[in-house]
Amino acid sequence: EVQLVETGGALIQPGGSLRLSCAASGLTVSNYYMSWVRQAPGKGLEWVSVIYTGGATYYADSVTGRFTISRDNSKNTLYLHMNSLGADDTAVYYCTRGGGTSSWWGSWGRGTLVTVSS
Amino acid sequence: DIVMTQSPDSLAVSLGERATINCKSSQSVLYSSNNRNYLAWYQQKPGQPPKLLIYWASTRDSGVPDRFSGSGSGTDFTLTISSLQAEDVAVYYCQQYYNTPYTFGQGTRLEIK
Question: Of chain B's two ends, which shows fewer C-beta atoms within 10 Å, N or C?
Answer without folding.
Answer: C
